[in-house]
Amino acid sequence: MKVILKIQEAGLIVLLLALFACKDALEPEAIRRGEAPGVVRNFSSQPIPGGAVITYDVPEGRDLRYVKATYTLDNGTVRESKSTVYKNTLTVDGFGQAGEYDVKLTAVAVGEVESSPVIVRVTAGTPSHLLVAQSIDNDNNFYATFGGINVDFVNSTEGNVVIKILIRDEQNKWKEIQAAYTKAKQGRIRVRGLDSVEYTFGIYVQDRWNNKSDTIIRSLTPYFESQFNKALFREVRLPGDTWDYHTGQGRARNLPVLWDGLHSQNGTIFQTKPSTVIPQYFTWDMGIKARLSRFILYPDIPPSDKNVYAGGQPSVWELWGSNSPDSDGSFDPSWTRIGTFYATKPSGLPLGQVNNDDIAQAKNGEEFEIEGNVQAYRYWRWRTLANWGNVTYIAFAEFTFFGSVEE
Fold it and tell me: Which of 171, 329, 391, 403 is the most exposed place for a label (fewest CB within 10 A)?
């Protein structure tokens, strides 16, 4: 019995030795090894963001299968890019900086038989993540707003990037508070929920190869929001402000009715004469220099609340600001357009049809946010472009403005 066991052990050892000896033979091999292809020649390149497109003559060789580029990124990662025999271009990308890089080009035949390599020196364009970071590194694009900050960016190459927003904590360490993944051509990132105290913010942009921009640092104080005191508002008449209130409408009053604090159903309203044309303008002085954050429009709610989102109630208008309006009433150059605003009917029903959601919004007022890095202004101009009923007059009850007063 012992003899049999020893024979089995010996046989197992021989089998294992044979397996190790044949290890290389067990690796899959190509069915056929082709002839070595010719060397890649007559190459040129054009820069793209973070890379280049290389053009070349397709090498000779009946067994040619593809051309490959081998190159090293800034972080030490070695990458390959391949192109079939049906194309004469290939793309190398992922470089973290604009500049010159060496790329090894090799033609590959059946059985992975390679030609002699050639080195191509290409010029990479500025990568997308750095272009996005450059667009942010501007006081007009990285700025304080109400309750936080706004970050406006431009991504002209539509590269896949992530924008990381950091804040310095009590221990003077960076803490990520928001990340935005995007390939949009442009956009805005909003950070909200912060107190009106100074913070140190940092922003960097990263691409899909983990290349990172330098950190852009700003010390910013979010604005504290309050409602503006309507008792300070005053009517201003400028040439071009051709409106007059409609004396034939018993509820109509002059311009100051818009800030009398009364916006209840079936109350007094601002309504212009039917002979007034659209667009039409009116101007007022807020009494203080103020940076707007938002405003609420209270439409006219007639005796029948079924008539909301009709008649002269504004549907599209512009808001303009100035600190020294030209006495001739011209918009350019003394006025700055703050934005174009569109009233929204919650139900989306046709003219003359409303539901409870429409009526509720009309009674509560519709809120509009001021977008972007808007400066502080004292004088304001409302320019109505369209109304719900497509009529020649405008009518609404009240507006209320919020923001911060410039000291």
Answer: 171
pLDDT digits (tens, 9 = 90+) for 272-317: 999 888 999 999 999 999 999 999 999 988 777 778 899 999 999 9
Residue 6 carries which DSSP code? H
Coil vs helix vs strand at 390? coil
Mean pLDDT across 70-78: 94
Q: How many CB atoms lie within 10 A of CB 239?
A: 10
Nearest to 279 by CA among 337, 212, 193: 337
Residue 165 — φ and ψ, nearest 5°? Answer: -110, 125
As a whole number of angstroms, the distance between CA 179 and CA 277 comes to 48
- Pick the residue with more confidence: 2 or 88? 88
- How many CB atoms are located within 10 Å of the residue 101 CB? 19
Q: Give pairs for 129-132: CB < 8 Å, separation 24+.
A: 129/50, 129/159, 129/161, 129/205, 129/206, 129/207, 129/211, 129/212, 129/213, 130/97, 130/98, 130/205, 130/213, 131/49, 131/155, 131/156, 131/157, 131/159, 132/159, 132/161, 132/163, 132/205, 132/213
Rounded to whole angstroms, the Cα distance separating 216 from 235 reads 44
Q: Which residues contact 12 (CB under 8 A, 6 or more apart)?
A: none
pTM comes to 0.76
Question: Cα 93–94–99 angle (5° rounding)?
Answer: 80
Q: Please count the other Cβ atoms lying within 10 Å of the Cβ belonging to residue 164.
A: 19
Q: Can you tell me the mean pLDDT for 150-156? A: 95
Between 296 and 262, where is the model more confident? Answer: 296
Go through the domains of the chain in sequence order and give each one's CATH number: 41-124 (2.60.40.10), 128-220 (2.60.40.10), 226-405 (2.60.120.260)
Q: For residues 108 and 34, is the Cβ–Cβ distance under 8 A?
A: no
**Torsion from C-alpha of 376, 179, 210, 161, nearest 10 degrees:** -60
CA distances from 239 to 113, 218, 327 (A): 83, 43, 8
* Banded model confidence at residue 377, pLDDT cuts 50, 70, 90: very high
d(CA 213, CA 191): 20
CA-derived radius of gyration, the chain? 35
Please give the backbone phi and psi of residue 385, each rounded to the nearest 5 degrees, phi first: -105, -25
